[in-house]
Amino acid sequence: MLHSTPLPPPSPIHPLDNPVDLLFSVLENSETGVVVIDATDRAVYMNASARSLLESPLGTVPAWLGDVLGRMRDGLERSGQVVDRISHESLTLRVRLRALPRPGVALLELHVAHGTAAGREVAEQLSRSLALTITDARLLAMLWQGLSNEEIAQQLSVRTGTIKSRLFRLYQRLGVKKRPAAVLRAAEVLAS
Questions:
Q1: Is residue 3 packed enough to be buried (19+ CB in 10 Å), middle (13-18) or exposed (0-12)?
Q2: Are residues 78 and 100 in the same domain?
Q3: How confident is the model at residue 146, as a pLDDT?
Q4: CA triplet 72, 75, 76: central angle to 5 degrees?
Q5: Is residue 70 part of a domain?
Q6: Nearest to 26 by CA among 7, 4, 48
Q7: 144 lies in which domain range?
Q8: Taking the CB of residue 125, how many other CB atoms lie within 10 A of it?
Q9: What DSSP string runs through 100-131?
Q10: How do residues 102-146 score in pLDDT, each as one tens digit?
Q11: Same structural domain, 65 and 122
């Protein structure tokens, strides 16, 4: 006769103790810069990425961005969302301002814009120096900037698999086998 030991009851799935803490953690660690601003364009909340991008350790909206926000708010009242490209010194941002349900409060999303004039100059220099097509040079410039395959695919509006194929062909043209060697070739050209 077989004797079996009863299994312990399954442990219940516990609901999150504090969903607000989880949400705060996700926002704070997001790669997207997130700023919640009030009706006077004062930051109510600014995550770590936004503080870093805006060089604002105290979480205040810099004056140069405040000037742009006034103009963006005019469009916000008409459509509920405004997307713009903002340049300040060497920083170029793609920003999206969206109205939130509370009157006067808006959400500002900040993304570093790639493909700026400086990016085109880098691609052109790589193209000339390494005898690459401008398309391959642009891809190499994105590698040099440290973008992942997924980020490159997003920038070029193609699938990640397409980027992998293009990278394989680029590595062959450069006579290298891996990404670090390709980045090193780009760095050698750009350092000279």
A1: exposed
A2: yes
A3: 78
A4: 85
A5: yes
A6: 48
A7: 117-191
A8: 16
A9: -SSTT-EEEEEEEPPS-HHHHHHHHHHHHHHT
A10: 888 998 888 776 544 556 788 889 999 999 999 899 899 888 877
A11: no
The owner of tokens 């220099």 is 125
Take residue 184 and report the two structure tokens written for it. Answer: 């090193």
Instruction: Locate 81 and state its tokens.
Output: 């969302």
Tell if the pTM clears 0.70, that is, is over it: no
Residue entry with tokens 């009242």: 77
Take residue 124 and report the two structure tokens written for it: 């052109």
72, two tokens: 């963006």
Place of tokens 């006769």: 1
